[in-house]
Amino acid sequence: MSLKQREKAEIFLRQHSADKLLVLPNVWDKLSAKLVSMAGFPSLATASAGMALANGYRDGQHIPFDQVTSIVSSITGSVDLPVSVDLERGFSENLAELKDNIKKLLEAGAIGLNIEDGIDHGKEMTPVAEQCAKIEAIREAGIQYGVPVVINARTDLFFQPTQSDTLDRVIERAKAYRSAGADCFYPILIGNYPDIARLVEAVEIPLNVVLFGGIRDLRKLEELGVARVSIGPGLIMQAITKMKNTVEGLLKYDSGELFAQEPVSFEYLGKLI
């Protein structure tokens, strides 16, 4: 792996400890990556759902992994920014296959990744020790191939019905994943500011949250000490919503949605290409 790729990984990791919140509007292809890059964001992260949907697959590791690496390669080849990849559960059946997938991601130009502990959006949970072994294997693979991979360890516990000890179990996983080598912790669907504040105080690891529902105030999240914010499939869902509303209107001879806002110029589109 190149010195430049190692430097990108180091830059990306430092962005998690800066005073400024690291905001990552998640991308899914070369065009969306160029758009977010041109807007001025310092790093990029993919969304598994966006990547799957844009290519005709359901989320949840249904898209072939070779197609994932091909898309990642097209993204990293189009922007000169650190790129982190949503690896879901690793697209692997064992640690050896996981390490091989990390090699393929690094060869595609990635410098970071998400790895999640839920199966089918938290219907089942990977045991803590097994998930820690995955994180350790990813760290080992990064060292082997010369890139300090930035590992964002996601927990899916908040997909499950809330219990009195849910946050305690989340904190337990955060500490375990940090000890295993994770650089960032991602309790997806954590849904209120008090829980976020307690989590930031309880664990010594940068915290990633996803914007939704009652936690959409970016300044508030920054004040609480959140390091990183994702929007998941938010961008592609906004695009699909706009298209859906437009075509449904046209069926009724209503073109209002099509002209509801000024479209981007062809000059801008040319810059994206």
Features:
single chain; 273 residues; alpha/beta; TIM Barrel; five-stranded parallel β-sheet; three-stranded parallel β-sheet; 11 helices; 10 strands; 47% helix; 12% strand; globular
Produce a short descriptive summary:
The chain is α/β, with parallel strands linked by helices. It folds into 2 domains: 3-232, Alpha-Beta Barrel (TIM Barrel), CATH 3.20.20; 236-273, no CATH class. It has 11 helices and 10 strands.
Characterize the structure shown.
This protein has 273 residues and is an alpha/beta fold. It folds into 2 domains: 230 residues, Phosphoenolpyruvate-binding domains (TIM Barrel), CATH 3.20.20; 38 residues, no CATH class. 47% of the residues lie in helices and 12% in strands. The strands form 3 sheets. Strands 2-3-4-7-8 form a 5-stranded parallel beta sheet. Strands 1-10-9 form a 3-stranded parallel beta sheet, with no helix packed on it. Helix 2 packs parallel to helix 4, helix 5 packs across helix 6 and helix 6 packs parallel to helix 7.
How is the topology of this model organized?
Layout: H1 3-15, E1 22-24, H2 30-39, E2 44-45, H3 48-54, H4 65-76, E3 83-86, H5 95-107, E4 112-116, E5 118-119, E6 124-125, H6 128-144, E7 150-155, H7 166-180, E8 184-187, H8 193-202, E9 208-210, H9 218-224, E10 228-230, H10 234-251, H11 266-272
Parallel strand pairs: 1-10, 2-3, 3-4, 4-7, 7-8, 9-10
Antiparallel strand pairs: 5-6
Helix pairs in contact: 2-4, 4-5, 5-6, 6-7
Q: Please identify the top-level CATH class of the largest domain.
A: Alpha Beta
Order of H and E elements: HEHEHHEHEEEHEHEHEHEHH
Mean pLDDT score = 96
Strand content: 5-15%
Quick one: CATH superfamily of the largest domain?
Phosphoenolpyruvate-binding domains
Number of domains: 2
Residue ranges: pLDDT <50 for 5 or more in a row? Answer: none
The major sheet is characterized as: 5 strands, parallel
Give helix % range. Answer: 40-55%
Number of helices: 11
Radius of gyration, Cα only, in angstroms? 19 Å
The CATH architecture of the largest domain would be Alpha-Beta Barrel
Class derived from helix and strand content: alpha/beta
Look up the CATH topology of the largest domain. Answer: TIM Barrel
The number of distinct β-strands equals: 10
Shape: globular
Strand order of the largest sheet: 2-3-4-7-8
Give the end-to-end Cα distance, rounded to a whole number of Å: 27 Å
